[in-house]
Known about the structure:
Layout lengths: L5 H10 L10 H13 L4 H14 L5 H5 L3 H9 L7 H21 L2 H6 L4 H11 L5 H10 L7 H4 L8 H12 L1
Helix pairs in contact: 2-3, 2-6, 2-9
Amino acid sequence: MRRITRHQVKTDLQAHAKIKGVPAGADYLGVMSRAVFQAGLSWAAIDHQWAALLDAFDGFDPRAVARYRDADVKRIMQHPGILHSERKIKATIANAKTLLALTKASGSFRKYLRSHGRYDEVVADLKRQFAFVGDVSAYYFLFRVGEKVPPFGRWIKTVEGDHPRIREMTSKSKRS
Length: 176
């Protein structure tokens, strides 16, 4: 298992900041998985569990996660300190496989993301290709990995609800 430093946990917990220079792999799957696990829950709950989730999922290395089988699902379901949602665990495994396939087909995941042209086109494809990804998690994911997203004030008019944590995330990014 990957060892998580105190600095890595603190940095990730503070602001859900944009990730600069995202390498292919773990950062993409980690950000997407965080969006999946946050869906329908308090972001603070997942913030609190993040180090344990990183440990349970081998740091979200997509090659490792894509090889997970039923025994790994059972292991993760028993891992202390995390949300034990079999559906979200299986979605993470499926998403790792999809991320690797799209990376291979496109040459890089960034090239895949940028092959769509408009924001609404990439969101539609993310929702089609990946499990548990909807409008809010797609915006979160794209924002965090440094892709172009509509300004929050315009985007919020297109989705149901207020989403104060997305508002906070985008406003903190402007101040950074």
